[in-house]
TrEMBL record, chains A, B:
CDD domains: HTH_LacI, PBP1_LacI_sugar_binding-like. The keyword Transcription applies. Transmembrane segments: none annotated. Residues 36-90 form the HTH lacI-type domain. Coiled coil: none annotated. Keywords: DNA-binding, Transcription, Transcription regulation. InterPro entries: HTH_LacI, LacI/GalR-like_sensor, Lambda_DNA-bd_dom_sf, Peripla_BP_I. GO terms for molecular function: DNA-binding transcription factor activity; transcription cis-regulatory region binding. SUPFAM superfamilies: lambda repressor-like DNA-binding domains, Periplasmic binding protein-like I. It comes from Salana multivorans. This is LacI family transcriptional regulator.
DNA sequence: CTGAAAGCGCTTACAG
DNA sequence: CTGAAAGCGCTTACAG
């Protein structure tokens, strides 16, 4: 924290700059030069601290010559307004919190988190907001973190992802009465704003396309049912199937993990009437399922059609290339940032919970790659493949 | 930032708690209840603010009964010490910075960032340190961010990744004189500590294994040569090749991208004497290369052997499963956190740049999956595959 | 052992 | 237009 007044910073005028930094102010610090403060700049520029502050906050007008003198002095001393002191005066941390409750082993393959963050953060920092991130491992820890960060004044609002069934965080946020944006469809009215991809049409398009090609046994490997988006994908798949008069009992849980997808795939293929097509709730599950299918000697793209969800960068490089539903998670992050900034700019000291939050829907897209494009044989795929032998 | 004294928080004693929160203190705020402060707690508990502070900082001893009274009062009011005020007094933000200069399109498939973060953050927050993240898109922005965050007192130190050739950040950090930990091998002595995986042995094992099987034309698709780890992988591959008396001219740049890997693979296969094995500098490039090879009708695992680097979760699910070099990036993050905390705990108000930083090396592991296991045919792979026709 | 008071580094009504 | 002074919410020597 101690700013070293190196000659670099002082433009090599260290010895002759006609300014002696006070070397102690009740300093109980071990050693080291003391921090440069607004007073040092004021003194060097020959103005009051108020003038320095004003010149850095732009609101009030000062003579240009004074502003220049102050800015020169600040540059010479390498001074910038201390963010902590500023935050204290303003009673705002100028920081948002992002708390993640996630199995860490899911993070390595999940395309959502890094892209969302890469979209979110630049949007916030463009407005000088910082982002504070926390990984928690239990709901208890998570709950405490939300409360603590607000009570301690660490954050001015939150970003939420991975909405869960009956998610207590929505009510918690309402109680805490802080701005928040939910990245995901809350499925109900909430005081928090929300932004999410609407992929219902994509899933319908996928199911209808398969149905049009003659598929009737279209299975679904769903993600973790505790997650709202996993349930939503399942529900839309089921509705699309029902709309075509198709049965929806070919379903298994894959929990968004590779191992789960492997088990789910085996279960589906072992069914009396195995599917001719499988819609996996994520590309990661689809990729794992592809290997399982290969092991079971069910050829993807020949005996069975599959599709995933997310459009991970590797999806086109699988063999056959994986059909999927693409969502731009970076865009989602960027929109979340914009909404959050809008939330805080409207100051609702109270009554935030009174109004309903904004809703912004983004479009997903169905991408029909080779893994999608097969027509079911006259018999089940396994019979087909054995009849070829 | 305004804490709502809801009945929830007050344990439903809101009306009869015998305590009237002062409703204004020169409050110029729009509306809303004012923030609960240490004075409110002191008043309710019938002690001084000093006592409240002490009871929350543990150092000095207070009578247990007083501590209890204070803590009860704090709980009743939902008060927690304001982090900003605390930081100001302590002249420390209790926060570390993590600034990323990265092409955002690389983030979606990169296993490093999310896992590293998932290891790093819990380590820091266990010690009540926060992590501030920033994505920048130019070196200029990056440099300013380091300087600004220190000058503004936003952070107490930094985490660095993606070390570049002749990386100016190492000197910048030394100049700024703040604690830092580098995740990666700086390749030279630096005042910052560093933690990284040593994979030289893994790469040698891979090359030697191929050489032992009779491969002599082992190519390398390297990552972005601006990055130190890409260069290191190349150098170690080249040294291992040279040690076996093998030529090192079969090399191409893939830039860590799918498209780059595609181009690099085409270039290598088009060579007069194409390789019988390819070491890709990342799994993402290897996966992309696999598709290119398939398009070129060079069969991985039959005509050519390949291996990647990173061990992404999908690696075992490619076909054939991808041999690779595994590094535990979560462990790397956890170790980086530990080192950083150790750095700040030793207070070096000056002279940080005098001593050399600590070095911690972690082990990588070579994982020989099916894509690795072929022996080269008597002729080149393309001749082999055409002679089979 | 406990409290009054100074001070962390700013910002901003307020007074000149 | 400009500055002196109060105050943001804490912590901590210092004095009782």
């Amino acid at each position: 924290m101690y700013l070293v007044l190196s000659t670099e910073i002082l433009g090599h005028e260290g010895g002759t700059r006609g300014y002696d930094a006070p070397m102690s102010t009740g300093a109980r610090r071990p050693t080291g030069p003391r921090r440069v403060t607004i007073s040092d700049v004021a003194e060097l520029a020959g103005v009051s601290t108020a003038a320095v502050s004003r010149s850095f906050n732009g609101a009030e007008r000062l003579p240009p010559s004074t502003v220049k003198r102050i800015h020169d002095a600040a540059a010479q001393l390498g001074w910038r307004p201390n963010a902590t002191a500023r935050a204290m005066k303003r009673a705002a941390a100028h920081t948002f919190g992002f708390i993640l409750l996630r199995a860490p082993d899911l993070l390595g393959s999940d395309p959502f988190f890094p892209l969302f963050l890469a979209g979110l953060e630049p949007g916030l920092s463009a407005d000088a907001y910082a982002l504070m991130i926390r990984f928690v491992s239990t709901a208890e820890e998570e709950k405490n973190c939300y409360r603590d960060w607000v009570a301690e004044g660490r954050v001015d609002g939150f970003v939420l992802t991975d909405l869960r069934d009956d998610d207590y965080r929505l009510d918690l946020l309402a109680e805490l009465n802080v701005p928040a944006v939910v990245a995901g469809d809350p499925g109900r009215s909430t005081p928090s704003s929300a932004v999410f991809h609407t992929t219902d049409g994509c899933i319908r398009e996928m199911v209808d396309g398969w149905a049009d090609r003659g598929h009737s046994r279209i299975a679904h490997v769903m993600g973790d049912p505790a997650l709202l988006h996993a349930r939503r994908r399942r529900d839309v798949w089921a509705a699309a199937m029902a709309a075509r008069g198709l049965r929806t009992d070919l379903i298994a849980e894959g929990g968004f993990t590779e191992a789960g997808a492997d088990q789910a795939t085996r279960k589906l293929i072992a069914a009396e009437n195995p599917p001719t097509a499988i819609f996996y709730g994520s590309d990661v599950m689809a990729a794992a399922g592809m290997r399982t299918l290969a092991e079971l000697e069910v050829r993807v793209g020949v005996d069975i059609a599959i599709a995933g969800f997310d459009d991970v960068p590797l999806a086109p490089y699988l063999s056959p290339p994986l059909a999927t539903i693409a969502c731009d998670y970076r865009e989602l992050g960027a929109e979340a940032a914009a909404i959050l900034l809008e939330e805080v700019s409207r100051s609702h000291p109270r009554g935030r919970s009174a109004r309903a939050g904004k809703r912004l829907e983004l479009d997903g897209a169905f991408i029909a790659r080779a893994s999608y494009e097969i027509e079911p044989g006259p018999s089940s795929p396994r019979e087909t493949s054995s009849s070829a032998a």
